[in-house]
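Case study.
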Amino acid sequence: MEHILSLLVFFPAMAGLLGFLVVKESIRAYGICVSAIEFVLSLILWMVFDTSNPGYQFVEFFPFVPSYGMNYYLGVDGISLFLIILSTFITMIALIGLSIEKEIKNLVITVLFLEMTMVGVFVILDVVWFYAFWELSLIPMLYIIGAWGSANRMYAAIKFFLYTFSGSVLMLVGILYMGYLYHDATGIWSFALPDWYALQVPFDAQLWLFGAFFVGFAIKVPMFPFHTWLPYAHGQAPTIGSVILAAVLLKMGSYGFVRFSLPLFPDASVYFLIPVAIICIIMVIYAAMIAYAQEDMKQVIAYSSISHMGIVILGTFAMNGEGITGSIFLMLSHGIVSGALFMLVGVIYDRRHTKMMKDFGGLASVMPNFATIYGIMLMASVGLPLTVGFVGEFLSLAGFYRINWVMTLLAGTGIILGAVYMLVLYKKSFFGEVVHVENKTLKDLNAKELSALIPLVALVAILGIYPKPILTTIDASVEKMLVLMDQKALQDKTKELLMKANTIGGNH
Amino acid sequence: MENYLYTALFSPLVSSLFVAVFAARPKMLFTGIVASLLIAVSMICSFVLLVDVNTYGPLHVTMMDWITAGNLEIPFGFVVDEVSVIMMVTVTLVSTIVHIYSIGYMDHDKSFNRFFSYLSAFVFSMMILVMSDNFVGLFIGWEGVGLCSWLLIGFWYHKHSASWAANEAFIMNRIADLGMLMGLFLIYWNVGSFQYDDVFAAAPELPVSIVVTIGIFLFIGAMGKSAQFPLHTWLADAMEGPTPVSALIHAATMVTAGVYLVIRAGELYSLIPHVGFAIASLGAFVAVFAASMALVNNDLKRIIAYSTLSQLGYMFVAAGLGAYWIALFHLMTHAFFKSLLFLGAGNVMHAMHDELNIKKMGGLYGSMKATAILMSVASVALAGIYPFAGFFSKDKILEVAFNEGAYGLWLALFIGAGLTAFYSFRLVMLVFFGEKEHVKYGIHPHDAQPFVIYALLPLGLLAIIAGFFEPMFEAFVTRLVSEYHIHIPHATEYLLIAATLGIALSGIGFAVYKYKRGGFSKSLEDKACYRLLSNQYYIPKLYECYIMRPFTVLSKFVWQKIDMKVVDFTVDIIAKCIYASGQEARKIQSGNLSDMLRWMIVGMLVLLAFAIVYSAMM
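After joint prediction, the assembly is written out as follows.
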């Protein structure tokens, strides 16, 4: 078990290399098998994970460039555990639902490489390696959009790549400066995250460093006003690209906030709390309005992602167990739900080669199963209780309420606006009479699509009804992080806010 | 007893899931029968629990944990006490009858199975709502009934108006739900728990301002579900759904959830009587406001919907003034006679081939006697005539208003009682008596199948006798909710009763007298106040012109002008600038040695300049 994390990271890539030897006809089956084994491995990781231990487990350490403190350093805790499982699960589901025939061998191998980088980002504890995985994840996605996308794919792919890349370059500057600060304070070089956690960064430096990391993460999430690459990327990407992008890649940004910004720079996080929250509120409302104005079904879901990520970040900045645990759970639930929604759009796109809502109408009577699953995902997306969407949203908003109730109210309009654009989408596409002749003969979901979608539906229900095992595991690590933040905080204001955010009662 | 509790709660769920398996298939009679049986099982268990609570007191179980994070812990816990068991009995009783009725009503519908799946899912959600032992559990049911209402209003989804009305209902409820969520968060951060017991125990210790805020937020939630002004427009539009749905969801049960919430949180509201008075005032306003719209409407179902709205106003008056058991009593009696009225209307609609305009009916008494009698009974009960059920509950509410010294409220309710009597009998007269207008349209009405009529008989019976349970009901419910004493001298009390009865009777008399003679003249319809009423005070139009359309326009503007032309354009401009500067700078690399040397000199000069400036700064 001691090398399970390395196995998790490199197994897909190794299998991907071997994939070059597999014949084209069986590559899809091969990809599904590899991703299924990887998924089972991640489940084994969860099974052997000690939920009573909030610290890093299955730690692996190999000196890499010891003189500069850059080492191969892996570990997993409650915060990253489920994001790893989400990555492996979504990759498997996306491969099961894969409907592309063109150059399928290259596509499957690319996806397996992408899986390596995604898992890598979530398990790595060395910041330089983290940066490497973070950047490496761009390349397979660039290739997926650029090679298998629709008409305007080059523009979208390049925009996606350059935009996120330029953001992460700033983050690299931040990483180097942080390494320098660490060396300055202790006399030794280290890029290990747990070492960095122990360092109290001076307040002024925190502000700059927070900013540098913020840009990198904010573009990835994407936060307003850095979000415009996302609609293009989703609009042009093939289904599998959109599914993985929305379900996992966006979570890297929000994971970054939890893993880096908060524990490394607690004072700066509190200092910038209100501005960040304002950006989140803008994201929620602004993206929801744009989603409502869309005519393209896929764009509605793309913008709805931005809107939901606003709540995720808001929950993270609630600075309490309720909010942060909720925001991590919301990352998982958004991964499941948005992944499913993009897959559903892919289903109808494969049949009709259009994503425009005006080309549909009355689909509920022609494709009842499709309409049912779409309806379930829609309800999960608007956060109906007993679906997975409610838990995270409720906790995130509940957590932030302690910080500022007016802002929570404004962000809470997301539950109204979310219902508005989603229900309008559903009405336009599924209700009414079948007006287009082409739609009258559409086939309902086939076995392949059902086998990809039914696990997602099951998860929506199961995690909605019984989220507790996941929540308690996440919460243990989050509470540990909050204690760390409190210990590290330099300013009284920070300590006061952390104190207030984590206690019941008292004045507001 | 726990087994009865779980059976009562989960047999509707089992019914829904079982029937859902056949949802996509053509009509299968057994789905309707199985669903009705399972709901009946739930009803029987509820009655058993009623007896049990009466004998041994409340029952409280915790099934399992649901959400835990930080300090927050929310379990799936259920409580069967005096209030929730009354709700359970009412809900399951009406549900069972509506299920049986629907077997007949939905007979020819191709989505027969799907209908029963949704209907049972609704009953399950409603049971969760009333049985939960904490506010978040209530919220599960709250949203669950909202979902089922959406599914059922939009049941005939091929109709544009139906799916539009469904979305309207869902979205309007969501607006209110946001208020409710805020109330929940406030409760959590002050009490640290969502359990009713903890919250009510802690409430007296909390600062009054906090309790006031909680009370207002929770009531905003109640306003959405119970369609109080200004969130009332969805209820009339919800009549697009099949009539059994209107009877069950939009008359008897779901819309009373708001009243239930206020009753349930009574211990909170009794700490803040001024908020309660505001609730009562809004209720009284809605009672008259909705009744006035019912006066002129010609749509059979919409009239009854407005009447529901008006009666919900009555309930809120009682609940707001602290007479919780009276509110609950009116909720129960109303559920009986209002669902009876709707189901009777369903029979009429079937007979009239889905015609809803009451001006096109008339004289149906001859061909559908049973329905006519049942609907008349329901109307008399609604009007509040002794000894029918409505008399007991409604009259009590008026007495409460008088007792509190809220004479304004009393007057509003008094007028409301007269209006109620008038529009109820306007409906009865236009539908069942007078000229047979329908003959012109070549319709030959016939009454519903016998089993449908038999299914309605229990409701008819209850509409007549339920009022006599009042003393028992009071003794039972006030074990949990606070008692309410009326201190009005007997003479005054009799006078009040006589006055109320008088206005109700004269309302009925006026309607009967007027419509026996062919009703009002056409010229009335051109009057400004008639148009105001028939256009629902222009409120739906107001919402469309000043909320929906601007929102659509603004959304398009934000997308096309701000997002595309400002935010994205800026990004592209930056990229283009960098690209263009590269294009221009490329010329430097001409490969010409003398050019290169010149640039080298420039570079050296720049570096020198930097060095000088830097050393000067140091």
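Observations recorded in class. Chain B touches chain A through 54 residues (CB under 8 Å). Residues 309 and 482 of chain B are 26 Å apart (CA to CA). We will return to this complex in the next lecture.
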